[in-house]
Amino acid sequence: MSGLSSETTLHVGGASPYDVVIGRGIAGKLPAILGDKVQRVAFLYAAELAELAQPVMDVLRDDYDVLALGLPSGEQTKTADVIFECWEALGEAGFTRSDAVVTFGGGATTDAGGFVAASWLRGVRVVHVPTTLLAMVDAAVGGKTGINTSAGKNLVGAFHEPAGVLVDLDTLLTLPTEELISGFGEVVKCGFIADPEILRLIEADPSAATDPTGEVLPELVQRAIQVKIDVVVDDLKETGGAGSHPGREALNYGHTMAHAIERAEGFTMRHGEAVAIGCVFVAELARLTGHIDDALAARHAETFGAVGLPVSYDNASFEDLLAAMRVDKKSRGNTLRFVVLDEVGSPVVLEGPTEYQLRAAYDVMTGKAAS
Ligand SMILES: NC(=O)c1ccc[n+]([C@@H]2O[C@H](COP(=O)([O-])OP(=O)(O)OC[C@H]3O[C@@H](n4cnc5c(N)ncnc54)[C@H](O)[C@@H]3O)[C@@H](O)[C@H]2O)c1
Ligand SMILES: O=C(O)C(=O)C[C@@H](O)[C@H](O)[C@H](O)COP(=O)(O)O
Ligand SMILES: [Zn+2]
User: Is 334 annotated as catalytic?
Assistant: First the structure.
């Protein structure tokens, strides 16, 4: 695919199939995705994006009664208080099971809005309209919804698949560069766990890859979404993959440390930045445990670094990060579990690395020790 001059639809199979429609200026597609049984729509949007959201709201108002709820931006929306306020608003408006939620914003908005849809009346229809690269390639697809608690990221949530996802690449034109680059944390992750062509495209010309007006980014978006789809259709609820494949946990590559860092930073660090650092950490852990060679470990810092993502972190102690990693959802009792690579495209689970190995990988992540 080059330039995505026309629309592309990727199908997500499984028990509740849906489509991910990718294109430019495609807000008019929303009613077709929502379906004709919906009467009212709760439009849950990042309030700071009111101007960008207006055309979408206008399309919805032509066909539905719209309850527009502007939410706080970023991680501030992934709180129990915000979810509670949404429930109260839906209750006051008398929302029923024939009504639907549309989310509009980055991954924080699709996570929180998705959780409102998952929990209201035990689940109503939701369509996501992601407006960040990260939400397009990851958060809006696959049905994970949730909020944070003081103990960590995404500790409360539900699996609730959308009825559709509308990816309008034009929304990336207003996205601040640092947010676009953050999205590359998940795009590069997809390259390492499943699609080497993603790595090749980025490494060949990082500036072209990160140009929101260019021809490479649409291809990267489509490829990363396809990686996510291929994983979630086989293991929607993260119960495990076939053979040695970790199933959906593969998408959690780099996230054990990433979520610990995000917690240490009071949820102020961009998710994709934390993922880049977390992948560098876990690549070193894989090297130390004999899973990958020096070159593949080094390729992590090189490729994440090439698009401008951070590849080291030294603002929290090993002990604090280890404690935070223990509440990771992949942990089983006291045993920490990590997704590591055997090679590009071959993720496996590493169970219970020693504290010595974890500390050695941490030392490399801080930049204080050479790999
Ligand atoms: N559910 C999943 O599978 C999944 C996957 C990956 C990440 N996530 C979650 O996604 C969240 C991160 O999402 P994110 O990186 O999109 O950040 P975000 O939602 O916090 O958005 C970042 C900022 O960009 C602004 N913004 C969004 N779109 C814009 C646009 N088009 N123009 C200008 N500004 C815009 C937002 O208002 C916000 O201030 C994290 O909470 C992470 O845990 C979830
Ligand atoms: O969809 C998944 O599964 C993922 O793990 C994708 C991740 O990029 C995403 O950040 C997800 O929200 C992390 O899930 P969690 O279960 O570790 O909270
Ligand atoms: Zn992530």
Answer: no
The residue whose CA has the least distance to atom 4 of ligand 2 is 251
172 is in an annotated binding site: yes
Q: How far is the CA of 153 from the centre of ligand 1 (A)?
A: 14
Answer yes or no: 252 catalytic: yes
The one-letter code for the residue type at 338 is F
SS (H, E, C) 161-222: CCCEEEEEHHHHHHCCHHHHHHHHHHHHHHHHHCCHHHHHHHHHCHHHHCCCCCCHHHHHHH
Q: Domains, the chain, ranges and CATH? A: 8-174 (3.40.50.1970), 177-365 (1.20.1090.10)
Nearest to 111 by CA among 336, 281, 267: 267
In this predicted structure, what is the pLDDT of residue 126?
A: 98
Mean pLDDT of 125-146: 98
pLDDT at 3 exceeding the cut of 50: no
Residue 2: pLDDT over 70 = no
Helix, strand and coil content of the chain, in percent to the nearest 5, comes to 50, 20, 30
Strands 18-23 and 8-12: antiparallel
Check if the beta carbon of residue 193 is closer than 8 Å to that of residue 251. yes
How does residue 42 score in pLDDT terms, banded at 50, 70 and 90? very high
Q: Which residue has the tokens 């090439």?
A: 306
| Mean pLDDT value across residues 90-115 | 98
Q: How far apart are CA 204 and CA 186, in angstroms?
A: 18
Q: How far is CA 8 from CA 2, 19, 20, 197, 252, in A?
A: 11, 10, 8, 19, 26
Cβ 52 under 6 angstroms from ligand 1: yes
- Site to probe by mutation for ligand 2, drawn from 145, 251, 277, 349 as the one with most ligand atoms within 8 Å of Cβ, is 251
* pLDDT tens for each residue of 276-333: 999 999 999 999 999 999 999 999 999 999 999 999 999 999 999 999 999 999 999 9
**Active-site hit among 51, 92, 122, 334:** 122
